[in-house]
Every structure is written in C-alpha cells, then in structure tokens.
Amino acid sequence: MAANLSPAAFIGKSIKFGTDGWRGMIAADFTFERVARVAALAAGVLETCYGQNTGSQTVIVGYDRRFLSPEFAQTAAESVAAAGYDVLLSSCFAPTPAFSWTAYDRSALGAIVITASHNPAAYSGLKVKGAFGGSVPPEVTQKIEAKLNEAAPKAAQAGQIQSFDPWPSYCQAIQSKVDIAAIRAAIREGSLSVFADVMHGAAAGGLEKILEMPINELNSSADPLFAGGAPEPLPKYIPDLYRAMKAHHQSGAAGNAVGLIFDGDSDRIAGMEVLSRSRMSPSNRPNAVVETAAPLLASAVELWLWKSSTTKSSP
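-> structure tokens emitted (315 positions)
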C-alpha cells in the first residue's frame, strides 16, 4: 500500500527500466525534471531504432488517470518537441494499448505513455512503445538507460505539438475485427450481461465506446487514490464487482453474465464468473477470479489489448 512507502527510499534512486518501462514515486524519484529528460532521450533512441523504417519524426505522448498524469504528459511532450520532434499529445486519458495502436496506425517513431499501470497511487511511470505497436525490447531500453547521464537534447528548431483524441481510431480498429453486432444483439436480447470494473483507471467508458451501448460499469469515477487500494485485477481489490455479479445472479436474471476487470492503464485484464452452489468447489469460492469470459466478449477483450501482428524487428 502507498501509505507504507517512504519517500526517502526513492529520492535520488537511479532510473531503471523494468519489463515495461520506468516507475517511481511521485515527487521523490519520479519528478518533472526527470520525465522531461527521459522523454527527450527516449525520443532520440526511438528515432535511432525506428526512424529509417518509418521515415517519421513524430512521437505519440499519452497518459492514464493518475495524479498529475496530464501534467507529466505535457512536460514530456514539450521536452520531446524541444528536441526537434513533432508530438501528437493526447487530449484525454486512454488505455496504454490505444497509444501503441496510434504509433502503429500513424507510422510514428513510437509512443511515450505516462502510467504506473497497476501500481499503488503513490507511483507514476513512463512506458516506451515502438513503431510496431508494442513494448520496446530490452535492447531499446538499454540504449535509453545508457544515455541517462546526458542532458535532454535541444534542437535548433523545435517540433510542433498537436492534440489528438486516441479513442475513435482505436475503437474503430477493434470494431472492424470483432463481430460487434453479435455482442450487441446478445446484450439487447438479455442472453448476455456485461459487468466491467475499470478500477478508476483508463478503461473507463471504453467498452461502452466500443459496443456503442451501455454496460454495467463500476468504479468509473476518477480517484487518484484508487479507493485506498491499487488498480490491479486481484480478488482483494474487486469486492464491488463480486457484489454486483452476485446480486445479478441471485435476482434470477436469464442469460450469461461476464465480469471484466481492467488494471490502471487497461493493458491487463481478468474475468469473473459467479458460480452456482452446484458448480462451486473449495478451489473456486466466491471472489475467485477466473478466465471464463463469454466467448464473444473474450474476443473483443483480446483485441482491446492491442498486440501488433507486425514482428518486432531488431533495433
């Protein structure tokens, strides 16, 4: 929990990229100065690795719903532009996969996303996505880390910053690959009920945008403290979804029901099913999170977590 973190343990901590980006404690080791420097240096590495194939000088910058995420993203965008790159800066929060998709769809150098994913509220972070539409490989993050002692580069001519809405293109891409009409029909006919716990994160409103109809969405409001927990799809953090699905089950409602849980930046997901007593064993008591989503919606969710079909090329 964030309350148990000591800022003293983070101040001055070296910047290290993990499996998917750099994360730190807000105002301790994750600061505006560091974000500006890392973003500009990362843009240069993206150009080195993907510039020849894309012919681009554009970097996508996006963010989640955490405390100060829009401000960190603005700082990153300004630093990347000062380094000579054009920037498409998101006008709103969106899932991290939406920015990966945008990098691929617009043939950009890549994307820089301000997010700490499923970490507690005290954290923020920075993810780097490649031109191919996914997380850059370790070879690329190692190139970024090797430059971290350098100052943020400044170009003789700064790039331009333009605002964009990442949702329409992302939703259209998913809609074109999934039988949305079948899912909508199942919901309208009552044979499928959809619940989604977005955990106060970047998935808020997403499934309704994709399906173009209401669903049962929980924890949609912005809450930088994540209700005192963490936006991670684990049983201990999703009592609201369990209660909602249990009430739906006990009401005698017809049809199938699926519960979906999205983490803070909507690149991780879990499914929930409330079992009848006849199907319940000691290993799947209430609160169990199981991957048994209805097949139609599971297909939609799989595409929601955009994975580029383009093979990652060596940097």
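The CA atoms of residues 94 and 202 lie 5 Å apart.
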